[in-house]
Amino acid sequence: MLSEELKQELRKMIADAESSREKAVDVMLDIQEHHLWMSDEAMEEAAELLGMSPLELDELATFYDFIYRSPVGKYVIHVCDSAMCWLEGHQRVMDHISTSFNVPIGGTSPDGLFTLLPVCCIGYCDRAPAMVINRRVYGKLTPEKIDRILGRLARDNEFHPPE
Amino acid sequence: MPRLVIDDLEIEVPKGTKVIDAAERLGIMIPRFCYHEALGAVGACRMCAVKFIEGPLKGVQMSCMIDAQDGMVVSTTDQEAVDFRKRVIEWLMINHPHDCPVCDEGGQCLLQDETVSSGHGRRRYPGRKRTYRNQYLGPFIAHEMNRCIHCYRCSRYYQEFSGYRDLGPLQIGNRVYFGRFKEGRLESPFSGNLVDICPTGVYTDIPARFKVRRWDLQRAPSVCINCPLGCNTIGNSHYRAVMRVEARMNPYVNGYFLCDEGRFGFSYTNGGADHAQRPWNSRISGADVTVEAALAESASKIAEISAIYGPGAVVALGSTRNSLETQSMLSRLCRRKGWQGPVWFNDPAIYRKVRSGVERLDSGIAVSMREIEFADFVIVAGADLLNEAPMAAMAIRQASRKNATIIVVDPRPISLPFEFRHIPAAPAQIERCLGSLVKGSISKDELKGFDSSAKGFCKALPAKFEEKESGISISELSGQLMSAKRPVIVCGTGIVCESTPAFAADCAQLLRESGKKAGLFYILPGASSFSSALLSGPETKTFSEILPQIEEGLIKALIATESDPFWDFPDRERLDRALSMLDLLVVIDYLPTETVKRATVFHPSSTVFEMNSTFVNQEGRVQHAERVHVGGVPIWGAHPPRIIRNFVPGGDHQPAWELLWKISAETSMLESVLTLGELIAAEIPVFEAVGHSKYPITEGRIIPENSEGSFVKPKASPAKGQTAKGFNLLLTDTIFASREPSAYADTLASVFPEATLFMHSGDANGAGLSEGDMVSVELELGAIQLKLSVSQRMARGFLFLPRQRGIHWQKMKEFSAWIAPERIRKI
Amino acid sequence: MAQPLVLFKNRHPNRVATLDEYRQSGGYAALERFIGGKIDPGEVVRLIDESGLRGRGGAGFPAGKKWEAVPKNAPFPRYLVANADEMEPGTFKDRILLHTDPHCVIEGMILAGYAFSATKGFFFIRPSYDSSAAIMERELEIARQSGFLGKSILGSGYSFDIVVHRSGGRYICGEATALLNAIMGKRPNPIKPPPYPTEKGLWDRPTVVNNVETLACVPHILRNGPQWFKDLSLTSKGAGTKLFCVSGKVNSPGAEELPMGTPLREIIEKHFGGMLPGSEFKACLPGGASTRFLTSEHYDVPMDFDDLKAIGNRLGTAAIMIFDQKTCLVATTHNLMKFFARESCGWCTPCREGLPYMRELLWLIENGEGKEEYIDTLRSMCKQVWNSYCALAPGAAEPVASLLEFFEDEVREHIRLKGCPFNAKAGN
Ligand SMILES: Cc1cc2nc3c(=O)[nH]c(=O)nc-3n(C[C@H](O)[C@H](O)[C@H](O)COP(=O)(O)O)c2cc1C
Ligand code: SF4
Ligand code: SF4
Ligand code: SF4
Ligand code: FES
Ligand code: FES
C-alpha cells in the first residue's frame, strides 16, 4: 500500500540511522502524514523496511500516543486534559468541538475530517486551555477561536500557519 | 563468598547470588512472579520485597534485584515487607477475574498460591475490572488475557530466551497486552513453555483444557523419547489418559523447557482422541485374542521354527525407541537363544555413523546442553537442529545470547532462532570445511607441542576451504576460533558422510590438545541410539543386510519389537514382498504401525508412560522414566463407566522386555535369577563399571573417562563439483512429523509441515521452477507430489526430501536417490 | 527588571534568535576557545563541576559529576542525549528556550559532547513540540555549515554531529533510561541501573543524558567562568539562573529566567503579574506535577534545590503551578493522578495497578462516594509506591501525599458532604 516513492524515502532515512529500529517512530509518523493512520498493512510494510517483525513494531505503535492504530480523521484534535488546561476548562473545549463540529469524543466526524481525542499536557500550560492538531499547537482556546481554527480547516481543508 | 543472615539463618553464597536465591538455599521461598532462574531478574512485579535491616542497604527492597553482600541482615517476615507484598497482591487482584473454579491453572497457579498465602481474601477496590479480548494462538495454547498479572515472563521467555518475534507486550500502562500482531499460530516450536512459565492462567494447554483439575492428575517424572536429547518431563494422566506433559527441570539437559513436539506429541499413548488409533489387544492373524493365547502362540511358533530351521532362522528387530530394559532383553535373548540380531538400525551407513560417534565420547569431551549454553564458539556440522533435536537449538541460542560465534556447516536451508554463519557445504565438503576451520585456529607453537598422531592429523587437514556462495571467510572464523576458550562441535549423523562423526571427534580432540576446553555433542537418530550402539559390535547387522536373507528364505520368523521397517526403510514394494515370505511375524508395539497390521501375532506393549523404564540419551546420560499410570483405553468423557467389568479395557499391554521374555520361553530369567539392573549390567558392562547395577538406575552418564578413539588420518575429500547433470536427493527430518512415536500423536497432526521439497534457487531457475510451485518428483517406484521451496542458502545440486508422515518417500529404492532433471517437473 | 539574562538574553517576542544574533552575544566563543583551542576535555568537566551546575531535568544531579562518570577508557562510540521530552504537566521552559535561542542549546551539546569525547548527539523531542524540532533541524544545519558541528569541528580534529529524534509521545520517555530504549526503537520501559548509562547506555555504549536547559548553561559557564555562574544565584549553595515556568492562577503565566533561589513570592508577584484578580494563593506545585503541594506557609521560600528540600519539597523542573482558594485540590490531585496512571509505562505493579487504584479512590471522594477508610488506603499506598521500579510512581504519589498532609480537612469535607464543596468536576 505504501508508494514506491515513499518507501524509497523511508529506506534512505533508515539507512542513515545508527540502527534501523531507531527510525521506527519516524517511519510511522511519516507514513501517517500520507495515510493518516497505521493500518495493519502499513504496519507490515513498515516493519519490513525496518527489519522488525510486525509485532515488534506494534509494541511501539501501541505504546505511543501519536501513532494511530485505528482510522482517524484528516485532522486529529488532541485536547489537553492535564492540570492547567483542566482548570481552565478543557471539558468545555471538548464539548464545544464535539457539538459544533459533530465529532464524538474519542471518535471521528462522519465526514472523516476531525477526530477528537484527549491528550496529556502538551507543554503549553501558559496558554491553557490548549490543543494540538496534527502536531501543531493552539492555545488560549475560546469557543470563538475554536470555531475560527476548525472552521478554516473545514472550509479550506488545509492548514493555516500555526500561531 | 558473601555471608549474610536471612530470617536469623546465616548462609554463605557465591558472589553474584541474588538474595532471593540465597533465601531459597535456606529453604525460604520468597514470593515472586517476574523472577525466574532461566529468565533472570527484571524487578517488574515487586512481589519479592523483603526488608534489609543491617548492612550496605536498608529498608524494603526487591530481593531478586540485589546481590547478596557481606553483612546483610534480611528479614522476609518484617511487617513492612509483609504488608507491602500483601498490597502487591491486592493490586494484582484488582483486575484479576475470580474464575479460579473454572480456570485450568487452578491448583497449580502461582498467583493463587501467593494470594492465599499473603492473606488477601476480600476485595476492597471499588472500581471496575479491566477486560481484554483474547487471541487465537494455534492448536496448542489457549489465551485468557484477563488473568494476566503483567510479570513479562512470557515475552521475555518468548523473545529473549527462545528467540522468536511474534509474541510480546503491546499497549501501555494498565492496558498492557501480551499477544500477537494478529491472531494465528505461534511461530515458535517452543511455544508450549508459555504454559509452564506464566505464573497464572493466561496460557493454558489446549489438549488438557477443561478436561481435568490439577489435583486429580496422576503425575510422575518421565522422559521425552521423541528425539535423542531425552528432555525431562512430567507425565500427567487422568482416567487412563495422559492429559498433558510438562517440562521437568534438569539443569544438564533441558533446563526448564521442552519443545512442542515433546510436550504435545503424546496422544499416541491414548490412541488419539477417539482412542482407536492404538492397538490395545493381543491378536493372532488379525483377530483379538487373550494375552495368554497370543503369548503361547508366539512362543510355540518360535520354538517350532527354531527346531525346524535352526534358531538362526529367527531374527529379532529392536529399535532406537526401545527402553534400555527392552534392548538389554533383546540382546540377551538373541545370544542365549541363538536368534539373529538384535537389529537396531535399517540403514547401514547411519548405524556406522552412530557407532563411530558413540565410541569417541568420553567424559573429557562429551558436553551436555548446559555446557553448550556456556560455549563461546559453536560449530554445527551436518545437523538441522530445529528439526532433528529442537532443544539443542535452544541451548545454542543461550550461547549466542552470550555472544558466542555460531557456525553451521550444512547443505540444507537451515533456519535457527539466532544469528549464525551458514556455510551451505555439500555433505562431502563438510569435513573439508570443518578441518580447515580447525587447522587455521592452531598456532605454530601449539602444533609443535602436539604428539605425533595429533601433529599428523593436523598437518593432513586441508589448509583452505573456498566458500564462494556464502561469502564467509573461513580464515577469519579460524581467527575467532583461535581465541575461543570453550568451543563445541555439534555433529549430526544423518546427512553427513560416514567418516564425519569420527572426524568431528578428532577435530574436537585437536582443539582440546591446543589447550581449549573443547566439547563434542552428537545428534543421533532416535531416543536410544546411544544404547543401541553400546549393544552392537562389528557383527551387528542392519535391516538392509537382513532383508536378503528373508528374500532368500533363510529367515522364517521375525520378532519386531517396537520396530517398524515401513517407517524408515525405503523400497516399500520390496519390503512388502519380503515380509510376506515369512512364516511368522511377531510384532510387539504400542503404535499402529504398518508392521503391526501385517503381524501374525501381535502383542501390545506399554508406552513410556505406562512402565518404569530407562533411556540413555545421545550424550550417554541414563535417565529413568517412572510409570505415570497403568494405562488402558481412556475413560474420560465416559465417566463413570456404565459397564462393570473385572478387567481394564486396553490394559493388556506389558513392557516389551517382559513380553519378549515370555515368548522366549526362557525360564531361568528374571525375578528368580536376574534383576533388571543385573540384566542391563550383564549386557552392557560399562554399567557395572560405573556402578550402575542397581535398579532403577539413578541419573548419571555411562561414558568412559577416556575413549580409545585416536586420530584417524583425514581422507582427502572428493573434489567439488558434480559431473553428471541431475540432483542428489537426500532425506531429512522435520519437526513434529518425522519421528516415532510423536508423529503418531493426533495432537500434532494439524501442525505437520506442508510436504515440501527443498532446492537451491539457482538450480530451480535452471529447471524453470520457482518458490511455491507444486512439483512432481519421479522416484524409482512412482511419483510423489509436493510443494517446492527454494533457497539460496543451501548447497547446489541437492534436493532435500523430508522423511515425514504423509510423504511417500518409500517410493525410493535406496536411502538416497539420483534425480535426473527431467524427473522433476511442475504440475 | 534587573534580571541577569543569560539563557534568555536573545529573547524576542515571537521570533527565534539567529546564529548571528547568538554569535554577537558571545555565542560559540566558548566552542572556539575550548574545542578550537584543543583544550583538554578534562578541563571542561572540571569547570562545569566547579560551577555547581545541577541538572535541570528534575533530579538535580551535578552535571560535571555525570560526565565524569564516563570511564576514561570507555569504548567508542559514545553518545550524548539532550532530553527535550518535557512532558511533565506544568513544564514548558525547554520549549520556550528552544524557541528563543536554539544555538545556545546546540553549542551546549557540542561542548558537553567534547567533555567526554562523545561522537554523536541525539536531540530527543516530544511530538507536540514539532515546531521546535523543525527549528532545531534548521539551526543544526546552519551550525554544521558554519563549521561548529560535524566532521573535525573548527579543524580541531574533534567530530560530533547531532540528530533530532522525534518521540511518539509518552511521559515516561523523558525518564533517562526509558529514553534510551525509545531511541533504540525498543519499548520505552526504564532500565534500573547499574549499569549506569554513562557506562552502558545506547547500544551498550557510554551515554550521557542531560536536560536541554542544563546543556544550555554550559557555553555560558565556560565563557564566563564557574565563579560567575555561582554568583548568579541568590543563595549561597545554588548556582546560575533558572528558567521558571509559571502557570495557573496568575496574571501573566509564562517562563522567565531568574536567579536561582529567587523567592516564590517575588516570582509570583513581581515576575508573573501576581495572582489573578479575586484569587488568593492557596497552594502551588513548585516543580512540576511530581512535586508536593506547597502552602502559603512557605510563600517566601527561595526557589532552589536545597531550600525546597529543606521544607520537604523539590525544585523538580521549576514548573510552578499555582492554585487559588477556589480550586478544589482533590479534583486537581485526581487530575494529576489520572495523568500519571495513564502515562505509567506498565512495567511494575505499584505504578501500573496502584496509580489507577489511587485515581479511583480520589474520583470517588471528589464525586461524593468517598469513605473515610480511603484516606488511610491512599496514605499507605503513597508510601508503598516508593517501592516502584522507577521514579514515576513515587513522583505521582507526591501530590496525593501532600494533599493528605496539608489539606486533609478538605478531603474529609468531600466525604462528609458527599460531594465537592467547590463544585469542581473531576473527569474520569
Ligand atoms: C517519569 C520521568 C520523566 C522525566 N521526564 C523528563 C523530561 O521530560 N525532561 C528531562 O530533562 N528530564 C526528565 N526526567 C529526568 C531524567 O530522568 C533525567 O534525570 C534528566 O533528563 C537528566 O538530565 P539533567 O541531569 O540535565 O537534569 C524524567 C524523569 C522521570 C522519572
Ligand atoms: S501472560 Fe502470564 S507470563 Fe505473560 S505477563 Fe501475563 S501473567 Fe506474566
Ligand atoms: S523432542 Fe527432543 S527436544 Fe523436544 S522435548 Fe523431546 S527430547 Fe526434547
Ligand atoms: S514506576 Fe514502574 S510502571 Fe511506572 S513508569 Fe516506572 S517502571 Fe513503568
Ligand atoms: S496542562 Fe495543558 S498544556 Fe500543560
Ligand atoms: S520477583 Fe522480584 S520484582 Fe518480581
Question: What is this entry, summarized?
Answer:
By secondary structure, chain A is of the alpha+beta class. Helix content of chain A is 45%, strand content 11%.
Protein architecture, described:
The complex is a heterotrimer of chains A (163), B (827) and C (428). Chain A has helices at 4-15, 24-35, 40-50, 54-61, 83-87, 90-100, 143-156; strands at 75-80, 114-119, 131-133, 136-138. Chain A is α+β, with helices and mostly antiparallel strands. Chain A folds into 2 domains: 4-63, Orthogonal Bundle (Arc Repressor Mutant, subunit A); 75-156, Glutaredoxin (3-Layer(aba) Sandwich), CATH 3.40.30.10. Chain A has a 4-stranded mixed β-sheet with strand order 2-1-3-4, covered by helices on one side. In chain A, β3 (131-133) and β4 (136-138) form a beta hairpin. By secondary structure, chain B is of the alpha/beta class. The N and C termini of chain B lie far apart (69 Å). In chain B, α2 (79-93) packs across α3 (110-118), α13 (430-440) packs across α16 (474-483) and α19 (543-551) crosses α21. Chain B has 5 domains: 3-92, Roll (Ubiquitin-like (UB roll)); 134-270, no CATH class; 286-344 and 531-638 and 653-689, 3-Layer(aba) Sandwich (Rossmann fold); 352-524, Dimethylsulfoxide Reductase, domain 2 (3-Layer(aba) Sandwich), CATH 3.40.228.10; 727-826, Barwin-like endoglucanases, CATH 2.40.40. In chain B, strands 14-13-24-23-22-15-16 form a 7-stranded mixed β-sheet, covered by helices on one side. In chain B, strands 33-28-32-29-31-30-34 form a 7-stranded mixed β-sheet. A 5-stranded mixed β-sheet of chain B has the order 2-1-5-3-4, with helices on both faces. Chain B has 27 helices and 34 strands. Chain C is α/β, with parallel strands linked by helices and 428 residues long. Chain C folds into 3 domains: 19-231, NADH-ubiquinone oxidoreductase 51kDa subunit (Rossmann fold, 3-Layer(aba) Sandwich), CATH 3.40.50; 244-324, Ubiquitin-like (UB roll), CATH 3.10.20.600; 329-417, NADH-ubiquinone oxidoreductase 51kDa subunit, iron-sulphur binding domain (de novo design (two linked rop proteins), Up-down Bundle), CATH 1.20.1440. Chain C is built from 17 helices and 9 strands. The model of chain C has no long low-confidence stretch (mean pLDDT 96). The chains are: A alpha+beta (163), B alpha/beta (827), C alpha/beta (428). Chains A and C meet through α2, α4 and α5 of A and β5, β9 and α13 of C. Bound molecules: flavin mononucleotide, iron/sulfur cluster (SF4) (3 copies) and FE2/S2 (inorganic) cluster (FES) (2 copies). One FE2/S2 (inorganic) cluster is lined by residues 32-35, 43-48, 62, 64 of chain B.
